[in-house]
Design brief:
Elements: E1 4-7, E2 12-15, E3 23-28, H1 39-57, E4 61-66, H2 73-81, H3 86-103, H4 119-131, E5 135-138, E6 141-144, H5 160-165, E7 182-186, E8 200-202, H6 204-215, E9 222-228, H7 232-247, E10 252-258, E11 261-263, E12 266-267, H8 278-285, H9 287-295, E13 303-305, H10 307-333, H11 348-355, H12 360-378, H13 385-402, H14 413-427, H15 431-443
Parallel strand pairs: 3-4, 3-9, 9-10, 11-13
Antiparallel strand pairs: 1-2, 5-6, 6-7, 7-8, 11-12
Helix pairs in contact: 2-3, 4-6, 6-7, 8-9, 9-10, 10-12, 10-13, 11-12, 12-13, 14-15
The protein binds one RNA strand through helix 1, helix 5, helix 7, helix 10 and helix 12.
Length: about 450
Amino acid sequence: MNIRFYNSLSKKVEDFKTIKPNQVSMYVCGPTVYNYPHIGNMRPVVVFDTLRRFLEYVGYKVTYVSNFTDVDDKIINKALQEKKSEKEVTEYFIGEFKNDIHCIGCKDPNVTPKVTEYMSQIISYIDVLIKKGAAYEKNGNVYFRVSKIKDYGSLSGINIDDLITGARVETNDEKESPLDFALWKKTSEGISWDSPWGKGRPGWHTECCVMIDTIFPPDGLIDIHGGGYDLKFPHHENEIAQAEARHNNKIANYWLHNNFININNEKMSKSLGNVIYAKDLIEQFGGNVVRMVILSTHYRAPVNFTNETIESSKNEVQKIENVYRQMALVLQINEKKIPTIGHASGMEKFLDSLADDLNTSNALAELYEVTKRANQSLRQREIDFDLIEQLFSTMSDMLSILGIDIKYVRLNTADKKLYEEYLAAKAKKDFSLSDKLRAELIEKKII
RNA sequence: GGUUCCUUAGCCAAGUUGGUAAGGCAAUUGACUGCAACUCAAUGAUCAUCGGUUCAAAUCCGGUAGGAACCUCCA
């Protein structure tokens, strides 16, 4: 299968070639855990979970790493404000985050490192950068020397001179250049660690490098690095700079960036007061619907949450659930076997769509095609059970790749008997009985 | 100020190297149906606008209008 991705680094669609055969190493920048996750936080999670599921389905062994930033000014402030320890704050919100992503159909990454667990590695990583002349210490702070990197700015397409003359870079007498960024910050307040440069805490940009470096030896080079596209600058640019200095590589062969979620055509922000927590949307509409809204648009385009787009996805999910459950019912009543995941036929166009830079819109079109065919098949006078079984299998596999979780009832003997009685009553035109039985079946979510 | 991107039917949305536009939601009509739900079928776009290149452009180039993002913490 020819898998292609748009690589933010080259700004081109490229064929996907892994470093090791049949294995994919993937890292996605995770959240800073100081508040409930908003819906925007869910986009990269859903996008890269879908990518991971797809890669696994087509046979790759995927090592998916996504971090938790549990050291940060916002966390320290929150802890001070609520008179709690930083750890209490971060543990709570990590739990909330995990809960949300499970509700929205995401599997846990293979590794979820936390900054606080990588402190010794971070310190030694910074130490190496200093020894290599790529970083320098001033008054207990350590800065990265951007001038050491000749093509700094290549990911984000930012011109260094423009940055400096743009006068939007904060001035700081300690730094050799305004572009230099902090690797280690001297702190007087909140949680801190001892280091060769005094008490302090690490800067944001180093943690991802160190985690990747540690988890993917020997040189911290991985296949895919993902995240929101706002992270291109400065975060990912700075990650690349550090890896260039440390290992002379660009961390990842493929840099993938997802676009944002808008709320009613506006960017979600605190100042606009339109921040929506993921948990609230999930509670109101269910994880499948929220996930469906996200998947309905290509990951590099913005997705808009409005009453209309949510309603649309809600109807789509409902339709898929209906036919899926009906097929499960028909198969079970007729003592046919329920196919297992991973062996479906008719997946070609669906998989091709996903192989094409994760085109979920086109993949969904294939899912709807199967949905329609299944509905048609269910209405035939002479039901073709083999066909139903095959369509059910196809649909199961598609849904499992997309992370849409649809439950159906496993019928026991009593359930089957109830259903048959319902059919019999209907056939006898005993509608008061059949209505009663129907209500029971609906109650049990069998039909 | 610098950089980048977007504009496809009421709404969402796809569209490899140019060859007269996937799919979904909603709507309308029809069908099915004891009732309801579910479902099926049919119906809609000169691709913001102007001009250029070309036998041929939603797709390439340029102008105009409108919108957005990044350059600062941000998914």
